[in-house]
Known about the structure:
- With 156 residues, the chain is an alpha/beta fold.
- The chain has four helices and seven strands.
- The strands form two sheets. The protein has a four-stranded mixed sheet.
- The termini are far apart.
Amino acid sequence: MPHKKRKVRKKRGSRTYGYGRVGQHRGKGQRGGHGKAGLHKHKWSYILRYEPDYFDKHGFRARRRKDENVINVGDLDEQVDQLLKEKKAAKKRGGIYVDLSKMGYDKLLGSGKVTHRLIIRVASHSKSAAEKIEEANGKALETENSRGVRSFEGKS
Length: 156
């Protein structure tokens, strides 16, 4: 809303209205280019302050990785009674046989404790998982892996 006490009233008659040498606030010469010009150059500080995600590339892209369905030895050991009830596991040769690949698991990891004698068939497993199973007099059997090569058949 216009009013009498605008700053320009004081500047009347001063030729440059507080903008220094002649012509410094005239025309289009003050804006540093049209639109988004100069954002990587003289308008970089504007980008840093007001639009930091404008150029939108940060960090690195991870390689595509197949998500494996994994289970820990300790979790499996806790679920043994339930698996026997559901007939997903069976007692064979003095141990409990579990086929994890039929249950949809790709890998067996070694976190937790093993209290049952387990015979486990799975596509792959970690060293610590195999060690814990063998300490409890069980076996870790690898099935054919994704490349179709039989890599390990339980030794003991």
